[in-house]
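Progress narrative, Year 2. Work on Proline iminopeptidase from Shewanella hanedai advanced from sequence curation to structure prediction during this period.
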Amino acid sequence: MSQVLPAFIRRDWVDVGDGQLLHLAQYGNPNGIPVLYLHGGPGGGCMSDELKLFDENSYRILMLDQRGGGRSRPKGDIRHNNLQALLADIETVRGLLNIPCWCVVGGSYGATLGFIYSALFPHRVMSQVLWGLFVPSDEAVAWLYGANGAANLFPQEYLAFTSLQDFTPCLETFLAGFRKGLHAPDINTLNAHVYQWLSWELALSLPGTKLPDTELPFGKSLAQIELHFAYHQYFNSYEIMCENASKITAKTVILQGEMDWVCPVMIGERFISEYGNEQIHYSVVKGGYHALANGKMHEEVVYAVGEMARKIHEK
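Result:
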């Protein structure tokens, strides 16, 4: 695989209202297949390495930083940040670019967002590749943050994650306490909560990897937005997924790592089995983790994204 990144076309800050300016960068072939890249988090941002997923000759790549994430402004904003706003932003950007329909590529909560978007706006998505799909059910949230899920696989890391809060079996109370810490006026308290939040997530997405201190400035907004969504039950994302999954008409490839401890296969498989349709193809990547930094996941996503372009060109 070539390490040369797709050519840069242009960048814009898109005003979507609510005082939000979204960073949109375009790469690749201006006349290629338009593809919207949805980063995870929520609250992350698009990274240059993620451009390596795409063949620049095939795609016009649209790297959109969602509200509060990446280079979008104001950074870390949660006042007007929810599922419906993110969906509306996608449609605003599509309309401004005058793109009738596009492909979608995304991972983790970006996969969740893409899944919901394609279900609610089926005529706007021609095909999509999603990986590490997060199904935000009560079961999945309890697995991720509670004491009886991933905590049993990573007990020492979970002990560190929960060390800043008084023990409580109530997940809602725990998240509320962590939320207070992530907005603490004392910088040391705030940074400690950011570090433990991101370290726990990293332990599950790429086991054995230690969080560098240089990630803290970026991580503050990511942690705050992630917790904002978790605390508000992902703004009914799960219910919307269940009610509308059958409406997806785009060919949808979902790749889930066999050892994805953020979004475990058992939850994803059960959801797709119950609510999916013939357009949704769910595959388990042997030896794959959650993060694209894992070679097996990266390789499978690159292949799927390439196949998507090939099949569109054949039509």
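Residues 139-233 form one domain. The first strand starts at residue 8 and ends at 17.
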